[in-house]
Write a structure and sequence with these properties.
The protein has 181 residues and is an alpha+beta fold. It has a domain at 61-175: Alpha-Beta Complex (Sufe protein. Chain: A), CATH 3.90.1010. It is built from five helices and four strands; from the N terminus they run ααβββαααβ. It is globular and about 40 Å long. This is FMN-binding protein.
């Protein structure tokens, strides 16, 4: 259906361009801009429809991913998303230590990282989580400057949770992350 709609729209735009050209209007730049604007509108409409269709495929529930091993600094990732009415309504991506304390709540870690990178876990974890809720698309989440490693981990793991939500599989995903010494 989507293909027919896109092809019909493209055919209509192409026919409109030929009609405008046949009329011999002197302002061809305006006609070209109008055609380009119409094409852009079609693409935007098509991509928003595709996004809403993809989001509608998510099954309600809470989907969780955990790393099995702590890194050399004593942290590991815990990440979950909650889906309600086919939409991601909550995202909790953070790192925890052996005591279960969250990196985003570690004031000393926050202070040290802000001094070195200009951003700390109390800043970037909420940014990443909020972007996923807002966009509903892990690929649309942008890397947070100063938190590249955590952003990359988020972007690697979020699609796994979305895939689990599409399948309705609430089994915890365990990542056997390799700890380099």
């Amino acid at each position: 259906m989507e293909l027919k709609k896109t092809l019909s729209t493209a055919t209509l735009l192409l026919a409109s361009t030929f009609v405008l050209a046949a009329c011999g209007g002197a302002d061809t730049e305006t006609e070209t801009e109008s055609s380009a604007a119409a094409s852009s509108e079609v693409v935007v409409e098509s991509s928003s429809e595709a996004t809403s269709e993809a989001a509608a495929e998510l099954k309600d529930g809470t989907y969780t991913l955990v790393e099995k091993n702590f890194d050399t600094r004593g942290w590991k990732t815990e990440f979950s998303i909650t889906v309600v009415d086919g939409k991601i309504t909550e995202s909790t991506f953070d790192n925890v230590n052996e005591a279960g304390a969250k990196k985003s709540e570690d004031a000393a870690y926050q202070e040290n990282m802000v001094a070195k990178a200009g951003v700390g876990p109390a800043d970037y974890f909420p940014q990443l989580n909020n972007q996923l809720i807002e966009t509903q698309d892990p690929e649309a989440v942008e890397v947070v400057t100063g938190a590249t490693h955590s952003s990359d981990t988020f972007k690697e793991y979020a699609p796994m949770l979305v895939a689990a939500a599409e399948a309705g599989d609430t089994t915890t995903i365990e990542i056997d992350n390799v700890v380099e010494e």
